[in-house]
Design goal:
about 550 residues, two-stranded antiparallel ribbon, two-stranded antiparallel sheet, Sodium/glucose cotransporter, mainly alpha
């Protein structure tokens, strides 16, 4: 069977599984819709958290960025995994002990202010929409290649599928669907990595093959021959300061992501929250320790398959034809010598590859079996859909629970709250789909912007809300507003208005670190210059840090 038939078959089977799970987990009450009735076992929540967190950026785009950036791409590995450890140790148990449904719930009650709650809602929606746009882009790319439709059509197909799961089952349906999606995405990532490691090095364990074989030395030599820096050369693409700031932004942004934090509200108690954090870290490590190997294998194979071959010869390759049809791979014989050459000079380079297709194309480039190639497509969809559904529910709960129920209509019935939540899911999908069709960057770049916004808005007020009982509502509101506005203006200015990165050359992906520090400083100063929180709030903060289940 062809790759396309295998893809359709595996995608249909996986979607039937998701649909069955979503239907069996459908809910009518708000507790089931927003926090899965707080009854998810720790190991299942760990798998769901891993799937929720390892988005299209991790599965589809991260290895592609590492493949292009080399050593400098390690910022994504260090930032995202380090941030998850930070979240698991510093925030998750305390937020679960606090209870409630959402991060704005915590902010509103801890800072005894509906204005603080509203600012947190705006930040949650801003972060989640930015993040989900990257997922929609990832879904569009998968469908574009394997169904041979335009990326825009692929995004629309993804919108319909994600909307179905999110609207039907809420958090309960999403959670159990994400458990299935995790196992599909990790199998889809590991199998081709093992096969390619065996082909290139004779060792089937990607991590060992990457570390102890000569594949990296070979790749370094090839890079130098082509005029590039060595693959392992540090700070070849970004400055040391920018790498530091991006890493910090990704770390603290992870710890402030509302769709990941809400996962710890779905378990029965604090003990289960700690255990689920540990399980999630194990599940995440399986992919993240494989990604550097996949990135190196992919770059080596792509150069070997495309560089210095004739244009006619390359275009005879089936995978080249189909990726060219998507517009995500372009070949151009600029000097007329009939040979296609990869060079670091944009004027003479004749091969242009979208970074988001690296992982998806690698099994084809390595000439793996059609079933394995199709499995990667199903895994990419699982990664994108799992995160997109979680993000949509954050947007939904932010409006339906934190604004409508907590601020507008506190007497709303269960059915009304769930209905409002479902309507908001539909609206959020439409907006996310637009940005998926018109993205401001590569999938991992778009997601990095979301992490920067989360770092600049949520992380300081959550940390101070748990560990500093003197922080008050005035400080929290001012800090979140300053951090969010500064970071948003910097990112939008660079990405949409060609603004020069004026803060010591720090990129849009790293500016969230500056926004975070501004948030901390403003929050602490304003809190000290205004009245302390009420005694009952200070007691609540003290209770959060008291050991208990």
């Amino acid at each position: 069977m062809s790759v396309e038939i295998w893809t359709i078959l595996l995608v249909i089977i996986s979607f039937l599984i998701y649909t069955y799970i979503g239907w069996r987990s459908r809910v009518q009450d708000s507790k089931g819709f927003f926090v899965a009735q707080q009854g998810v076992p720790a190991i299942a929540n760990g798998a769901a958290t891993a799937a929720d967190w390892m988005s299209a950026a991790s599965f589809i785009s991260m290895a592609g960025l590492i493949s292009f950036l080399g050593y400098d791409g390690s910022i994504y590995l260090m930032g995202w995994t380090g941030g998850y450890v930070l979240l698991a140790l510093l925030l998750a148990p305390y937020l679960r002990k606090f209870g409630k449904y959402t991060v704005p719930d915590f902010v509103g009650d801890r800072y005894y202010s509906n204005i603080a709650r509203l600012v947190a809602v705006v930040a949650a929606i801003f972060v989640s929409l930015t993040y989900v746009a990257g997922q929609m882009r990832g879904v569009g790319i998968v469908f574009s290649r394997f169904l041979q439709v335009p990326v825009e059509v692929g995004v629309i197909i993804g919108m319909v599928i994600v909307g179905f799961f999110a609207v039907l089952g809420g958090m309960k349906g999403i959670t159990w669907t994400q458990v299935a999606q995790y196992f599909i995405l990790i199998i889809a990532y590991i199998i081709p990595a093992v096969a390619i490691a065996w082909i290139l090095t004779g060792n089937p364990i990607p991590q060992v093959a990457f570390t102890f074989s000569d594949i990296v030395q070979k790749l370094n030599a090839v890079q130098v021959d082509l005029g590039f820096q060595e693959y392992t050369q540090p700070f070849a693409n970004k400055s040391m300061l920018d790498i530091l700031f991006i890493t910090i932004a990704l770390m603290v942004g992870t710890a402030g992501l509302p769709h990941v934090i809400v996962r710890f509200y779905t378990v029965p108690n604090v003990r289960a929250a700690r255990y689920s954090a540990g399980w999630a870290l194990l599940f995440i490590a399986l992919l993240y320790t494989t990604a550097p190997a996949m990135a190196a294998f992919a770059r080596y194979n792509l150069i070997d398959s495309l560089h210095n071959h004739t244009l006619e010869e390359v275009r005879q390759l089936d995978w080249v034809k189909k990726w060219e049809n998507t517009g995500l791979l372009t070949l151009e014989d600029k000097n007329g010598d009939e040979l296609i050459e990869l060079t670091p000079d944009k004027e003479t380079n004749e091969i242009t590859i979208d970074r988001d297709i690296i992982v998806l194309s690698t099994p084809e480039v390595a000439k793996l079996a059609p079933g394995v190639i199709a499995l990667v497509a199903a895994g990419g969809l699982a990664a994108a859909l799992s995160t997109a559904s979680g993000l949509l529910l954050v947007i939904s709960s932010s409006v339906a629970h934190d604004i409508y129920y907590r601020m507008i209509n506190p007497h709303a019935s269960e059915s009304t709250r769930v209905m409002v939540g479902r309507v908001m899911v539909g609206l959020a999908i439409a907006i996310a789909g637009y940005f998926g069709i018109n993205p401001p960057g590569f999938v991992a770049q778009v997601v990095a912007f979301a992490f920067g916004l989360a770092a600049a808005s949520f992380f300081p007020v959550i940390i101070l809300g748990i560990f500093d009982k003197r922080t008050n509502r005035e400080g929290a509101i001012c800090g979140m507003v300053v951090g969010l506005i500064f970071t948003s203006i910097y990112i939008i200015g660079i990405k949409f208005y060609a603004m020069t990165p004026w803060f010591f050359g720090v990129s849009a992906e790293g500016i969230g670190t500056v926004g975070m520090f501004l948030n901390f400083v403003v929050t602490l100063i304003v809190s000290r210059l205004t009245s302390p929180p009420p005694l009952e709030v200070q007691e609540m903060v003290k209770m959060l840090r008291t050991p208990g289940s």
